[in-house]
Amino acid sequence: MTVSLGVHVGQQNLSMAELRALWRRLDSAGVDWISVWDHFYEAPFQGGTQPHYEALATLGALAADTEHARIGCLVFYVGYRNPALLAKAASTLDHLSGGRFELGLGAGWHVWEASAYGYAFPDIGTRLDMLDEATEIIQSLLNQERTTYSGRHFQVDDASCWPKPVQERLPLWIGGRGERRTLEIVARRADGWNAAYTSAAEFGRLNSVLDHWCEIDDRDPATIRRGANVAFHLCLDPAGVERERAKIAADWGSQADRIAEGSLLCTPAKAAEHIMAYVDNGADAVNVALRAPWDAEALDAYLDEVMPAVRAAATSA
Asked: What pTM does this model have?
């Protein structure tokens, strides 16, 4: 068994120089995946008070600065950019990275930033309809010579997307935990599914729901990759772990319990076992999600000790 071990970097509260140094370090340390997120404001929301970089421009630098890790965004909210534009950007980023880019899409959640920047943020049912349409358009533009599509939310007219990606098929991920619509769209359209900040047991349950949708849609479930984002709260000693637990409570309020359950909230000695619980529940990709500030020594321990231990455990499983 093999597992992809990645790092999901929130591009907030760091200078661009610090970000670039970080992902160069991650790339040289052998991580399999590096991603950013698609926000204009910080997450969790703090009133738009924290420095934050836009995702597409950031990905251009990430593509140019790295050589080995696959890269992407988990995930782009389809309400911020026309899907044809996203297809064009995806192909461009695949060329910048030498064929290492993977596109993630989602229905969005950050209503505060959308409102502040003047974007409509309709109800979740409408946003999921937008996700479904956008995914169909993007896949067609990336894989077909011409695309015409007239939907309720998006339209393209005899559109082309040249050059095509370097990869024969650029992977498309859909992120989310919604059982009735999101996972059904994944089963019909996606190459991968990503769930953020959920416990290993809950990830396993949702994984089974996705398998159910694959059966309904006559899709081989083995053709969909399964990924989990786990918040990075690793610390070298138990006292540090308790400080991180208190920080989660202060930052996330009513969502704190869920975030804590979906976190690497432990010491390095227990981290490999924690990550393997996701693998045992069906994940073939596990990304630790960094929000500055974090314990730098704990990150070193993760890269130098925990990742090799997980890879060894996965190989022997």
From this structure: 0.96
Give me the phi and psi of 106, to 5 degrees please. -155, 175
CA distances from 92 to 22, 87, 88, 97, 142 (A): 23, 9, 6, 9, 11
The amino acid occupying position 165 is P
Exposure of 285 in the CB half-sphere (CA atoms within 13 A): 26
CA distances from 89 to 45, 112, 162, 235 (A): 27, 25, 11, 37
The predicted structure's pLDDT at residue 317 = 79
Distances (CA, A) of 23 to 27, 80, 81, 150, 226: 6, 25, 25, 40, 23
Report helix, strand or coil for 203: helix
Nearest CA among 300, 227, 241 for reference residue 270: 241
pLDDT tens readout for residues 52-100: 999 999 999 999 999 999 999 999 999 999 999 999 999 999 999 999 9
Give CA–CA dist 118/288, Å, rounded: 31
Tokens of 298: 């704990």
Beta bridge mates, 227: 194, 285
Backbone angles phi, psi at 170, to 5 degrees: -75, 120
Number of continuous H segments (helices) and E segments (strands) in the chain: 12, 12
Distance CA 218, CA 225 (A): 16
The pLDDT value recorded for residue 234 is: 98
User: CA–CA separation, 166 vs 96, rounded Å?
Assistant: 10
Give the count of beta carbons closer than 10 Å to the beta carbon of residue 171: 16
Q: Is the pLDDT of residue 227 over 90?
A: yes
Query: Quick one: tokens of 170?
Result: 């650029």
